[in-house]
Amino acid sequence: MGLLTKIFGTYSDHELKKIYPIADKIEALEEEYKALTDAQLQAKTAEFKERLQNGETTDDILPEAFATVREAADRVLGLRPYRVQLIGGIVLHQGRIAEMKTGEGKTLVATLPAYLNALTGQGVHIVTVNDYLAKRDSEWMGKVHRFLGLSVGLIIHDLTKAQRQAAYAADITYGTNNEMGFDYLRDNMALYASEQVQRGHHFAIVDEVDSILIDEARTPLIISGMGEKSTQLYDQAEQFAARLKKYVVTETDDKAEEDPAIDADYVVDEKAKTATLTARGIAKAEEFFGLENLSDPENSTIAHHINQAIKAHGTMKRDVDYVVKDGEIIIVDEFTGRLMFGRRYSEGLHQAIEAKEHVSVQRESKTLATITFQNYFRLYNKLSGMTGTALTEEEEFSTIYKLDIVEIPTNRPVIRIDNEDSVYKTENGKYRAVIRQIKACHEKGQPVLVGTVSIEKNELLGKLLTREGIKHNLLNAKNHEKEAEIVAQAGKFGAVTVATNMAGRGTDIMLGGNAEYLAKTDLRKAGMSDELIAEATGYAETEDEEILNARKLFAEKLRQHKEEIAGEADRVRQAGGLFIIGTERHDSRRIDNQLRGRAGRQGDPGETRFYISLEDDLMRLFGGERVTNMMERLNIDEDTPIEQKFLTRAIEQAQTTVESRNFQARKSVLEYDDVMNKQREIIYDQRKQVLDGLDVKNIIMNMMNTSISHLVAEHFAGNDHLDAASCRELLRQVEGLYFPKFTVRFTEEELKEKTAADVTEAFTAAAAAYYEQKEQAFTSPVMREVERVVLLRVVDEYWMDHIDAMADLRQGIRLRAYAQTDPIIAYKKESLDMFEEMISAIQSETVRRLYSVRIKKDEEIKRERVAKATGESVGGDGTVKKQPRRVQKIGRNDPCPCGSGKKYKNCCGRNA
Ligand code: ADP
Ligand code: MG
């Protein structure tokens, strides 16, 4: 702690001082509320709602509302929120991040602000990292809310639209970040408001907020459909890349790339995660693909595929970055070690890896909608979060999300011992030391949790332990429920658990073991199905006999195990509590802190130590020259820890470097997404207006007006009047579309008089009249419906193309090697132009389609149905003939078929 913070206190100390008086008020109500009957306590909800309607604010009623929840939680769950939990709840209500250590009871904390804010009737979202936790929390905490008369919903995978709507309509909705983000995107693709599921973004409480807003923020959410591009080129690029020789640069020879004498076809920079062809590699590529010049723009597709192929070979490691499972490439989350099912690397890298691993290469998909988590969560009027580890990311939370962090004191003092790192010269030496430590703990029965950074290391350690005959649980990326179960038992006497970082985040490790999980195992032994067990341990309301009996058995077993565990917990405490071993420093200090925090919860004893070797990636890549030199100088054997003060500093420095690099990467993702976000907001907002029943006719008439006046202006070409030829030309484009032939005609005399405004007026009047006529024929309600659907469809089609075009633009701009221009500025400028073009294209296309709408006669519809059903026509001889394609000849002066409203020769036909 620096001297200044010692004197003045930290930011959190300062902020807490302002919160204590509010906590005092809540605590002062304790006795009064204890004396209430259940009915009286439940009546508070209606009273609060009324007071809010009469002008009081949520801040005004906070002490009473919190006191109500506190009392209810005690009665319903047997948990009475501690003072620090009340404080955490206040911080959340204030729209900030509450940093509360693992085991402090954050799940319960969230009920306090959730109840208070739900009283306004606008809906509160509680967001967790996975389905398992969302379900657990909604059932468990849902009991308190239901007791108080609020409804609770749950958003997880595999729900129908109706179920989602019901869940979002609830006062409080628990759900995962992925599902909520996807629901938002899907809502904005709906054609009817009744198909939408969310009802606004009022207040969100994000659990494990660093995991969701920081770790997950680098991969945006994408809804995609099937694209048309072929996949063949990936296999070819792979065949080519597989025979190349690579060269991996290390810290000290950054210059290798420019070295012409280097004996390699491509150079890999592990630090920057890039792979680049050398001159020799380029020559080989040109020969392989039969090209004259690989850097020629017309070969850019091949060049792109080659680049992804060598990237797949050079920088992407199997079982570290991804795994191959059932013929699919699954990304491994580098922070959690979890498999990210359904996520794909973008820009063809995923396909390149598929080709490399010889699994079937999936079609490139077309993005239909996309958003980053940053921009999704910024939609909320009020955002708050909780986690054990946020402070290291203070800057990011404040600049990106405008969230400040208040560190909440623990309920009981932390007595965990955090040891200095043990640094070894080699990886082998390090692992031997780790095994020695595990053995030492194991002998006295002290449970050990070993954290590993990758699946590969995780399995390696497992093998070493097996060789030593130490029984252990190995955990890497399984399903969340299993994961939670194993982690929950990590505190048993003598347990050894090896897990990838943060496996089972959100699950409490209790010393002596977790009674709940042991009781569950008993139910399983009693022959109960997994579903029944889930019901038996769940909190959902039910009257089912079987479930109620199972619950009775569960409660009985739970009580038994709790008694046993109490004794075992004491033995574990004597042995020193949970021992945490880190086998490598993670890129981010936060992840290390998260691992440490699993020990010493609620005042338990515990100990942590990180084991590091100078050969670890982090040290090798970011340790700097001093570390490298030292490696050579040191005359220490492998098994002796190196104790050098500067090493600890070097490690932390390396971590800060990587952290800020990652922050920059996320910031860059966001900077680009921000550009699109503005456009997305405009599009989604206008869509919403249409869905909410805006009168579209007016808009359509304005669009028609704009389209016609553009056409007219184009044909006037800056002149005061129109000549006969141009007039004919102009008429050809408007007649038959905006109004029937011969509706408007000008004599040569008239033409000499008419200005552009006159002509526009004449045309638009005719077009409006024609539209009225159509409306009469269709009837107004039908016309309104057609307008809505056509407008939304056109907007969606163009917007989806625009998303892809923006991605291409971004890629293109990155490839442009102009040192002087800031790529983001170029991107902003060009994408704005593209957006404006898209808007005007949407307008003319919508108008065009609406004016082309015809009422179909009965037999016409019938004929079409038959044609559609068969797809082909059958000739007299019974052979199947392909329907002849109707080719439309477009004249150079005809309107361009792309719907731009320009002449073909001035638009798509420019080079024809
Ligand atoms: P966190 O998310 O902060 O790591 P959890 O919400 O998972 O912690 O809670 C950890 C454990 O603490 C749970 O078993 C819970 O039942 C218990 N707990 C939480 N609040 C209280 C309380 N006020 N009194 C007693 N036990 C509590
Ligand atoms: Mg938690």
From TrEMBL:
EC number: 7.4.2.8
Membrane-traversing stretches: none
Main location: membrane
Catalytic reactions on record: ATP + H2O + cellular proteinSide 1 = ADP + phosphate + cellular proteinSide 2
Keyword Nucleotide-binding: yes
Cellular location(s): Cell membrane; Cytoplasm; Membrane
Entry GO CC: cell envelope Sec protein transport complex; cytosol; plasma membrane
Key words of the record: ATP-binding, Cell membrane, Cytoplasm, Membrane, Metal-binding, Nucleotide-binding, Plasmid, Protein transport, Translocase, Translocation, Transport, Zinc
Region (Disordered) location: 866-902
Cofactor: Zn(2+)
One matching Pfam family: SEC-C
Annotated binding of ATP, by residue: 85, 103-107, 508
A GO biological-process term: protein targeting
Gene Ontology molecular functions: ATP binding; metal ion binding; protein-exporting ATPase activity
Every Helicase ATP-binding domain range: 87-271
NCBIfam families: PRK12904.1, secA
Family: Belongs to the SecA family.
Name of the protein in its database record: Protein translocase subunit SecA
Source organism (scientific name): Vescimonas fastidiosa
